AraC family transcriptional regulator
Amino acid sequence: MKQYRQFEPVLVSDFEVKEWHHPVHTHNHYEIIYISKGKGIHHVNQSSLAYGAGNVFFIGPDDEHYFDIHQTTRFVYVKFTDEYMHQLDTHYFSGIRQLEYLIKRRDVHFSGFRFSSSDQQTVNHLFRVIMSLKDDPAGNEHLIWMQLISIASILQRNLPEMMDTAGQPKNMQALFCYIHKFIYSPAKLRATVLARQFNSTEDYIGRYFRKHAGITLRDYVQEYRNTLIRKRLDNGEYSLKQIAAEFGLTDESHVSKLLKRPEPKRRKRSVGK
């Protein structure tokens, strides 16, 4: 299968076509795809999604996708790498968090976003601004980033509710979504808080998570947090003090201690997610 590789931190692509000329492919970057006009089907992994003007899709590096165009379509792509997300200073932590949450939410990669009328107007305006900046992505990098985090914020608030009503059946997707959303707030990931959020007990939710994930809840939180921290350290732009503050940790030594712990061992799951 073909893989497209991008070396620039961010690129904007704006084009209109009657036929799709790319094979099924993956890539080494992330893509937020906006449908400016047109109709057709977007094939993502094993899903087929009808698309129309105003729809937005979020695609990750491991996603296989292509478009079946039924009506001449204008696509606007914002393509960015991990380097782009993590080369910026701490003023951008909020935007990075929103993008990381969308990246981790695998279910959003298989479905398009549809918005309320007011959010749709805002999304349309934001992409028009991005389209106006496409000819000089390096010189307009800061401006593109500001539009991107605004779009990410709107996408995030249009995600399905993690828990709609009290007593809703517990499921792993809801648990994963909650953990990924609040990974920067340790107090919200305490067993007592999680149990209350999911109308359960500490013992039950711990057993449920381990049964379906093959790893304890505590170890999963540690593993996911450490993955995000290592990305920031590998980038070289963040100090331990900044990282500790972002993740609600006591101090720099707490960050170092977390990273020195051995990786938790996963057991084979007895039941699928």
Q: What stands out?
A: The longest strand covers residues 65-80.
